[in-house]
Write a structure and sequence with these properties.
Layout: H1 2-19, H2 21-41, H3 45-50, H4 52-73, H5 80-86, H6 91-120, H7 128-154, H8 159-170, H9 172-186, H10 190-221
Helix pairs in contact: 1-6, 2-4, 2-6, 4-6, 4-7, 4-9, 6-7, 6-10, 7-8, 7-9, 7-10, 9-10
Length: 222
């Protein structure tokens, strides 16, 4: 399973290295979202700073949609998706490989966004360990849920509009818990944020387990 996951992850990372979609499109889009929010709320700097946690995770979610669509669009060209089903690779390995690559893309985007809120919004973090743990749990949860719903919608003609409708309601806990934990990391009450991190970790664990056992059915049915 891990060998098959490494094959899928290596293939997708090579495609990304050649196309530079994350660097040339996803990251500029995420940073542009932060800039637009800054223009909208800049007259009141205090409100902008208070809204920083929510704006950060909204930008992450919007960027995640682009990364997930890109990860599965490449499988729909020239019958690659059918070849993947017939390749004999472990479906759980395919899921892990896809989720791992999406997680790498999201981690890079979150790093850029973290620098962005520090520079543009003046955010300061008093709980760096909580911040890193929250981003890791949220990234795993988004990548796992995104891999499931990306596979579900990839074979449909309306996948570009269907994926946001399917995924955004499901990842609402990431927005809620991530915002609360991020806010705690910015304040002196980081102990409060660890409870929200625990909920994020449960969300990530649930969707990781679902993906390991259900991805085979999704590949066959989609």
């Amino acid at each position: 399973m891990l060998h098959d996951a490494a094959l899928i992850a290596g293939k997708d990372l090579r495609l990304e290295w050649r196309s530079r979609v994350t660097v040339n499109q996803v990251m500029p889009f995420a940073f542009l979202v932060l800039v637009l929010f800054a223009f909208a709320l800049d007259p009141d700097r205090r409100i902008l700073l208070q809204a920083t946690p929510g704006l950060f995770w909204l930008a992450v979610l919007f960027s995640a949609l682009l990364a997930i669509q890109r990860a599965f669009v490449v499988e729909t060209e020239d019958g690659v998706r059918d070849a993947l089903r017939l390749s004999g690779l472990d479906p759980a390995g395919i899921f892990i490989g896809k989720a791992a690559v999406i997680a790498v893309h999201l981690a890079a985007v979150e790093l850029v966004l973290g620098v962005g809120v520090w520079v543009l919004y003046g955010a300061r973090f008093h709980g760096p360990f909580l911040l890193v743990a929250t981003c890791l749990a949220a990234t795993v949860g988004l990548a796992s849920a995104g891999s499931l719903y990306g596979a579900l919608s990839a074979g449909l003609r309306v996948r570009e509009t269907l994926l946001p409708l399917l995924l955004l309601p499901v990842v609402a806990p990431v927005l809620l818990c991530g915002t609360q934990a991020f806010e705690a990391a910015m304040s002196q009450s980081s102990g409060e944020g660890w409870r929200w991190f625990g909920l994020l970790a449960i969300f990530a664990l649930i969707y990781s387990c679902i993906g390991l056992f259900a991805f085979d059915s999704l590949l066959e049915d989609s």
